[in-house]
Design goal:
- The complex is a heterodimer.
- Chain A is an alpha+beta fold.
- Chain A has one domain (3-90): Roll (Ubiquitin-like (UB roll)), CATH 3.10.20.
- Helix content of chain A is 16%, strand content 31%.
- Chain A contains 2 helices and 7 strands, in the order βββααββββ.
- Chain A has helices at 32-39, 44-50; strands spanning 3-7, 21-25, 29-31, 61-65, 68-69, 79-81, 85-90.
- Chain A has a 5-stranded mixed β-sheet with strand order 2-1-7-4-5, with helices on one face. A two-stranded antiparallel ribbon of chain A has the order 3-6.
- The radius of gyration of chain A is 12 Å and the shape is globular.
- Chain A starts with a strand and ends in a 5-residue tail after the last strand.
- By secondary structure, chain B is mostly beta strands.
- A 4-stranded antiparallel β-sheet of chain B has the order 4-3-2-30, with no helix packed on it. In chain B, strands 8-9-10-11 form a 4-stranded antiparallel β-sheet. Chain B has a 4-stranded antiparallel β-sheet with strand order 12-13-14-15, with no helix packed on it.
- In chain B, a hairpin with a 7-residue loop joins β14 and β15 (190-191).
- The chains are: A alpha+beta, B mainly beta.
- Chains A and B meet through α2 of A and loops of B.
Chain lengths: 95, 376
């Protein structure tokens, strides 16, 4: 089965057992929200770093699909297909 | 890296805008530090729980990027544990998410394992497993006043929790909603702000809506409470039914801190700031003020404090320990931390140039071991 990879920033990799990316099997297209559910299923602390308990993406967490940040697309409903690359990058924020 | 072990030690925990520092001491003069723990996350709340024969340090952690969480350590910060599913999270159906944990309050010795928490958005939580999992207090969450509560400058939060000896009476203070009281252990809540001015509102004497900054209970007089408000220092002798001003004798009635003695009736400490519009120590001279007669008179305490200081002290950036005489500790937004081993009569600067100090807690512990790794 085809897979979709989610690339993690280094600061989050310890929460995924040290992996730099996580994969989910996907035939056809899935939503980014489904993809996050899938790849963080075994890593609940990682899941909470990305989204709050309502499921909303945290304000300074950005997810890019083919170079576009999902807030400029359809948010967590943005569709992604096998072979595409999904990047999680924290915003430049804080002081 | 050396380790120390003594029969009795003191632990000081300093939560800052960019991490946590921990220190131990045998004499409350010389301190050995570790840190920063949780670098680049703010630590707005700390609870040191010395019940159950162990020292558990619980911290509210908040990253700008990765959100809030609660972690705990049973080995003075050598290792930290974060419950996989999260210690505090709003249940389904509330459509709310925790923004920041403002308060972690270990309950009485007679109720080991019970820990309360206050959070933003305004909410109170209770754990019965030593702070590993908390349950939302539905009585306060579903309170009909909720839509009328406002947000203080720092956010809309329940920041003070006080539980009486029996556990029936629980007082919560929130910004901005004022003081709320439960007489049934937290099931139902009513505002109790009579006598506290809300000068910034059209009606300066509303039932609720006061901007209380901190409340604390008298150590020995049941039903006596103290409150530092957004202008106004108050005492209640009737379980918060009525409040009266005890600000006379203070250089200013603004500030954030309210501490009470661990055992002695009538003793409390405040750290005044000049005013809402001038949030600095009066005349730039930092001082703690202590009353030993429940607010009748105040004594200025500044021995060992700097001649000039323009940083504020935040509501939870001050604490007492349970020793005799009691220790008093506080930190400034300028990153200095001061400790007194004699109830405020004299202070030593025990840390300096840290990030903004948000929370300070101290405790007496048995057999503390900490790796001395850093100088601050």
């Amino acid at each position: 089965m085809a897979e979709i990879s989610v690339v993690l920033p280094s600061v989050l990799q310890p929460l995924a057992g040290g992996q730099s990316y996580l994969t989910a099997p996907a035939d056809g297209t899935v939503t980014v929200g489904w993809l996050l559910d899938s790849v963080t299923g075994d890593y609940p602390v990682l899941a909470r770093r990305l989204r709050d308990e309502t499921g909303a993406l945290r304000r300074y967490v950005n997810i890019y699909v083919n170079g576009d940040e999902v807030r400029r697309l359809q948010g967590l409903d943005t569709e992604v297909a096998a072979g595409q690359e999904v990047l999680i990058i924290q915003s430049v924020a804080g002081g | 890296m050396g380790c120390m072990a003594t029969p009795e030690s003191y632990v000081l925990a300093i939560g800052t805008k960019k991490g946590l520092w921990l220190a131990t001491s045998q004499d409350r003069k010389q301190w050995s530090f570790t840190g920063p723990h949780f670098l680049m996350s703010e630590i707005p709340s700390i609870g040191i729980d010395t019940r159950d024969g162990r020292t558990r340090i619980m911290v509210g952690v908040r990253s700008e990027h990765w959100g809030p969480t609660v972690a705990h350590s049973d080995d003075l910060g050598a290792t930290w544990t974060e419950p996989e599913q999260g210690a505090i999270k709003f249940p389904d159906g509330t459509d709310a998410a925790v923004e920041r944990i403002w308060q972690i309050y270990p309950d009485a010795d007679s109720r080991p394992g019970v820990v309360w928490a206050g959070a933003e958005p305004i909410s109170v939580w209770k754990s019965t497993d030593g702070g590993e999992h908390f349950e939302l207090n539905r009585g306060l969450w579903d309170h009909p006043h909720r839509s009328e509560w406002g947000a203080g400058y720092g956010g809309a939060a329940a920041h003070s929790i006080v539980v009486n000896t029996s556990g029936d009476n629980v007082h919560v203070a929130m910004s901005t909603g004022g003081v709320y009281r439960s007489l049934d252990g937290g099931s139902s809540w009513e505002p109790r702000n009579k006598g506290i001015s809300a000068y910034f509102m059209p009606d300066p004497n509303p039932e609720f809506g006061q901007c209380v900054h901190k409340i604390a209970a008298d150590a020995a007089v049941e039903g006596r409470l103290y409150a530092q408000n957004h202008h106004g220092v108050y005492r209640s002798d009737d379980n918060a039914e009525n409040w009266e001003s005890i600000a006379e004798g203070l250089p200013a009635d603004f500030g954030f801190v309210m501490l009470t003695h661990p055992r002695r009736a009538g003793t409390a400490w405040v750290i005044p700031l000049k005013a809402d519009g001038e949030r600095i120590p009066p005349e730039g001279k930092l001082a703690v003020h202590r009353t030993d007669d429940a607010g009748g008179t105040w004594k200025r305490l500044d021995a060992g404090l700097p001649q000039s200081e323009y940083n504020a002290v935040l509501r939870d950036a001050a604490a007492v320990d349970s020793a005799e005489p009691a220790g008093v500790y506080f930190g400034t937004r300028g990153g200095s931390v001061y400790a007194s081993a004699d109830e405020g009569e004299s202070f030593d600067e025990v840390a300096s140039h840290l990030p903004d100090v948000l929370c300070v807690r101290a405790a007496v512990v048995a057999d503390a071991k900490v790796a001395a790794t850093v100088s601050v």
